[in-house]
């Protein structure tokens, strides 16, 4: 189900589904709006099936280039936990989705903001205004709830949810996901990645070390696309890493930074106008919201043993970006703008890869 035929990057084994939900307990859901000039949506990542506010998971954020308007990052940086789902949407819908997250939690726990502390919504964004009429403010609280309720281990990638209107390397981008397994040592772990890919200059696109962007640009295969590779890099990417390795928040921040290595391998230079954010969380244990509930005692991964996790984070992120490109479908939207999907532009990619010697 939802099989993606895309180039394979790296050398580490993938999980059974090759997606972030290979990490036990993690689920993903979408709500997609695709009518005329409205090409957008929302994607929700749930870290576990329980109550995110009562049972928080350790998390950390890495800001690679801070040209962005996300909500909730300072508290994650300060306290090192998630207390809502992770939501992805377009730039102008951040406020609507943040309010929906707050209303959802207040509905469950009326003491929030009164006898209890307030809650911290967490919404990441990218600007899909090339394909989507972002000024229509089309994404609603009901769309967030639809994505949240539909979250499952099997989910679609590409031009869906928050990825519906996104562009990547002057082609169609969107949602991509991958996983890698860390084996050997005392215990095996899973690393999952999900990206909202909306970045990059065509001429820089590199896939598994091959300069595909230059080939596409040279042969003018994007005829009819308005934005070409001579423009400066702008746009954004959101990278979410999940793992079942027992890490604390400081270690998770180190892990989140390694998503940038996977991003760089695809040809990004983190341009001035590119908002590049990474969040990492672990499902290995939960931190109770209420002080009278005992906190877990966890044996953390030793600092000297983090390198395999770093490698898996970089590789899973790189693969997730590739999967976003190859699972996307061509989309036409606002003002007749169009983004072509790379399998349509380069149908002979497999033959090309086989004859290219690195």
What are its keywords?
358 residues, alpha+beta, L-amino peptidase D-ALA esterase/amidase, seven-stranded mixed β-sheet, four-stranded mixed β-sheet, aminopeptidase activity, hydrolase, aminopeptidase
Description:
With 358 residues, the chain is α+β, with helices and mostly antiparallel strands. The protein has one domain: L-amino peptidase D-ALA esterase/amidase, CATH 3.60.70. It has 9 helices and 15 strands. Helix 2 (94-108) crosses helix 3 (141-149) and helix 6 crosses helix 7 (307-327). The radius of gyration is 19 Å and the shape is globular. This is Aminopeptidase.
CATH topology (fold) name: L-amino peptidase D-ALA esterase/amidase
CATH-scheme architecture: 4-Layer Sandwich
Strand content: 25-35%
What is the C-level CATH assignment? Answer: Alpha Beta
What structural category arises from helix and sheet content?
Answer: alpha+beta
Number of domain modules: 1
Mean pLDDT: 93
Overall shape: it is globular
Sheet with most strands? 7 strands, mixed
> How far apart lie the N and C ends?
32 Å
**Number of helical elements:** 9
Helix content: 10-25%
| Beta-strand segment tally | 15
Low-confidence stretches: none
Question: Rg from C-alpha positions?
Answer: 19 Å
In short:
It contains 9 helices and 15 strands.
List the helices and strands and how they pair.
Layout: E1 27-35, E2 38-46, E3 55-66, H1 73-79, E4 81-82, E5 86-90, H2 94-108, E6 123-126, H3 141-149, E7 167-168, E8 171-172, E9 174-182, E10 189-198, H4 212-218, E11 234-243, H5 249-257, H6 259-265, E12 273-282, E13 287-288, H7 307-327, E14 331-332, E15 338-339, H8 342-345, H9 349-355
Parallel strand pairs: 5-6, 11-12
Antiparallel strand pairs: 1-2, 2-5, 3-4, 3-12, 3-13, 7-8, 9-10, 10-11, 14-15
Helix pairs in contact: 2-3, 6-7
């Amino acid at each position: 189900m939802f099989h993606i035929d895309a180039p394979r990057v790296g050398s580490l084994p993938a999980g059974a589904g090759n997606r972030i939900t290979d990490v036990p307990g993690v689920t993903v859901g979408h709500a997609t709006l695709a009518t005329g000039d409205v090409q957008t949506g929302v994607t929700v990542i749930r870290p576990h099936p329980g109550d995110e506010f009562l049972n928080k998971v350790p998390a950390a954020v890495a800001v690679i280039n801070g040209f962005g308007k996300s909500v909730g990052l300072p508290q994650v940086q300060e306290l090192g936990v998630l207390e809502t789902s992770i939501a992805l949407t377009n730039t102008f819908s951040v406020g609507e989705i943040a309010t929906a997250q707050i209303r959802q939690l207040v509905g469950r726990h009326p003491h929030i903001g009164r006898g209890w502390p307030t809650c911290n919504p967490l919404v990441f964004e990218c600007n899909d205004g090339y394909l989507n009429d972002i000024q229509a403010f089309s994404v609603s609280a009901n769309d967030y709830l639809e994505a949240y309720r539909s979250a499952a281990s099997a989910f679609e990638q590409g031009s869906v949810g928050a990825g519906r209107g996104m562009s990547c390397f002057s082609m169609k981008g969107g949602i991509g996901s991958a996983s890698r397994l860390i084996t050997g040592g005392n215990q095996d772990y899973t690393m999952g990645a999900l990206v909202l890919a909306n970045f990059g200059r065509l001429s820089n696109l590199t896939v598994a070390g091959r300069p595909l962007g230059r080939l596409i640009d040279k042969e003018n295969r994007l005829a009819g696309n308005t934005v070409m590779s001579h423009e400066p890099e702008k746009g954004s990417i959101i990278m979410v890493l999940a793992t079942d390795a027992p890490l604390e928040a400081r270690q998770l921040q180190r892990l989140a930074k390694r998503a940038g290595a996977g991003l760089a391998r695809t040809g990004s230079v983190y341009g001035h106008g590119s908002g590049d954010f990474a969040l990492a969380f672990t499902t290995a244990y939960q931190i109770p919201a209420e002080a009278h509930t005992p906190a877990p005692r966890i044996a953390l991964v030793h600092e000297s043993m983090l390198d395999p996790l770093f490698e898996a984070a970089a590789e899973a992120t790189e693969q997730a970006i590739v999967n976003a490109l190859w699972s996307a479908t061509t989309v036409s939207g606002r003002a007749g703008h169009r983004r072509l999907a790379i399998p349509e532009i380069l149908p002979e990619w497999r033959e090309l890869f086989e004859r290219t010697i690195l």
